[in-house]
Amino acid sequence: MAQVHLRNLIKAYGALQVVHAINLDIADGEFVVLVGPSGCGKSTTLRMIAGLEDISGGEIAIGERVVNDLPPRDRNISMVFQNYALYPHMTVRENLGFSLKIAKRPQADIDVAVNKAADILSLTPLMDRRPAALSGGQRQRVAMGRAIVRHPEVFLFDEPLSNLDAKLRTQMRVEIKKLHQRLGSTIVYVTHDQVEAMTLADRIVIMRDGHIEQVGTPIEVFDNPVNTFVATFIGSPPMNLLEGRVDQGAVVLTDGSRLPIPPRYTAAQGAAVTYGIRADNIMPVGHALPAGDHIATVDMAVTLSEPLGTETLLFAELAGTEVQAKMLNPRPVRGRETMTFQIALDKCHLFDAATGSALRRA
Fold first, then answer.
1. In this structure, are residues 128 and 91 in contact, taking their beta carbons and an 8 Å threshold?
2. Which residues, at least 6 apart from 63, have a Cβ–Cβ distance to it below 8 Å?
3. Residue-wise over 297-315: b if at least 16 C-beta within 10 A, else e?
4. Dist CA 145 CA 68 (whole Å)
5. E strand or H helix at 112, and its extent?
6. Can you give the pLDDT of all 362 residues of the chain as single tens digits?
7. Is 176 strand, coil or helix?
8. Given CB 3.0 to 4.6 Å as the disulfide criterion, which of 86, 93, 292, 319 pairs with 127?
9. SS3 call for 337
């Protein structure tokens, strides 16, 4: 396996620059996920690493080699695509071994590599089938197996689960995680799905408009977002954001209601700020959040409830803004019912209203 280093990496199409001098170091054996909305540059970055897109500036190194000018076949990488890219006229066995056959490897070596990959991915019973006779999940496993047999230094995944239904996506996430644990491979994975990013990654790279907004472990980016974009992109449902102004240790919201400044933040008197609260940290009284030194309460009218089994997602109004909250041990909620909610202040966030950047923590 190998490290991957991106140095001031740029991609431009004429005057349009879509990746802006990004820098990223990926450790040997690390699982890194590039995540962001459509058009943020994540797939373009992956394709530059693969050699499928020429770079406009900067440097890509895989292991000790700068690979800027190397064709894909010489970079010792394997890529798994969104659309599987299997040969429809070949069996599973033939698809798995095709790259080794093209490389003129001995048939005995091909058989060993193919059988090992099939065993890892539970494909042995399917070896004589063609892609048309496989389910979406089985096709994706074949695509991963075709990557495994090459023993690459780096695996690249380009939104590999986006064509699968919700149940299969969950199953395949588990398969990919197990594959990484078994092989100890370096993986760079692209997705627009933050749930995939959170569940798979050792580190997440959050991108927007060709820039890297934040890099960190799933817990780091969830608990300490650097700005409102990361705060609302990572986490489901997205973080609630409320506009207000600092006044004597509190934030006065647009309707005049007051919330204490979260204890880990400092903010100047009169500053315009954005108050961030995740749904997990605002719950009706009696539904999971204990009373304590850093608890605030607000009364809100519930406009909608979504029962989810063991919990209910509540939509309510606060200072003219729709807020999402969680209710554990759920009960039926009447339309427009006013409920008292507790807020865990030590889990709340404060951002500069003008820039969206997180304020300095105390």
1. yes
2. 2, 3, 153
3. ebebebeebeeeeebbbbb
4. 27
5. helix 107-120
6. 689 999 999 999 999 999 999 999 999 999 999 999 999 999 999 999 999 999 999 999 999 899 999 999 899 999 888 777 888 999 999 999 998 888 889 999 999 999 998 988 889 999 999 999 998 888 888 988 888 888 889 999 998 888 788 888 888 888 889 889 988 889 999 999 989 999 999 999 999 999 999 999 999 999 999 999 999 999 989 999 999 999 998 999 999 999 999 988 988 899 999 999 999 999 999 887 776 678 999 999 999 999 988 899 999 999 999 999 999 888 888 878 899 999 999 999 999 999 999 998 76
7. helix
8. 93
9. coil
Give exposure, 70-102, as e/b (b: 16+ Cβ within 10 Å): eebeebbbbbbebebebeeeebbbbbbbbbbee
Identity at 297, one-letter amino acid code: T
3-state secondary structure of 251: strand
Tokens of 347: 């889990």
Q: What is the largest CA-CA distance in the chain?
A: 77
Structure tokens at 7: 């140095």
Contact 228, 322 (CB under 8 A): no
Task: Fill in the amino acid letter for 27.
Answer: A
Q: Structure tokens of 73? A: 């076949």
Tokens of 249: 């240790």
